[in-house]
Amino acid sequence: MADNKQPHLNGAYYGPAIPPAAQQPRYHHHRSRSCCCCLFGIFWKILAALIVLAGLTILIFWLVVQPRPFKFYVDATDLTQFEYHTNNNTLNYNMVLNFTVRNPNKKLSIYYDKVEALAFYEDTRFGSYDVITYLNSFRQYKKSTSPMSAVFAGERVLVLDNDQIAKFNEDKNAGAFDIFVKLYFRIRFRLGDRTTSTYKPKVKCDIRVPLIANNVTTFFKTTECDVDF
C-alpha cells in the first residue's frame, strides 16, 4: 500500500516572492516651495537692477551737472560796542557783519529763500538777525557772487562765570573779541526749468572781530566759513 503521508518540510519556503503591501501615495510640497524661491529670486534681481539703475542715474547726473556747495565768507566787520556789565549781567553790543556768498556751479542757480544768523560769545547766544526773509529772497545765478549783511544791536542778559569774565576782559584789553556766528539757510537749486525741493544747510563762522574805537579803522582779514549740508 502506498504511503499517503506528506513528506516532511524543513520550514524553508522557496515559492514565488510575495508582493509588498500597497503604500499610500505621499504628497510633497517641493514644487510649491521651488516656485516661491523662484519668485523671491526674481524679486531680488529686479530690486538689485533698480538700485544699480538708480546709482547709475545719480552718477551720470553728478558727472554732467557736477553740483557744488556754495562758498561763504565774512568780508568785513564793524564792531562799535561790546560792553559787559557785571552788576546786572548785561551785554550791550552793536556789530555789523558783511558776507559774500559764491555760487561756483556752472549749471545750477540757487534760490535763497531764508537766511537766519545767530551770534555767540563764549558759547552763549547774544543776538540774532534775519539776513534773508521770504519777502526779499533772491536767485543767485551761475558762477556769481552776492553780498549779504547782518546787523546785531541791542542788549542781552548774559550770565558769565568768572573764567568767562576773565576771557572777556582779556579780549577787551586786546581790542578784539572771538565771535562765533551760525547761519541757517533755506535754499533751492534750479537746473534749467526744474527746481529742487528745499535744502537746509548750515554755515559756521569763527571770527576774531576787532573793536572799533574813536572811529579808528581796524584791518579785518576775510574769513571763509564752514558750509555743512
Automatic annotation (TrEMBL):
The keyword Protease does not apply. One of its GO terms (biological process) is defense response to other organism. Keywords: Membrane, Transmembrane, Transmembrane helix. It comes from the Eukaryota. The chain crosses the membrane at residues 36-65. Its main location: membrane. InterPro entries: NDR1-like. This is Late embryogenesis abundant protein LEA-2 subgroup domain-containing protein. It comes from Clitoria ternatea (Butterfly pea).
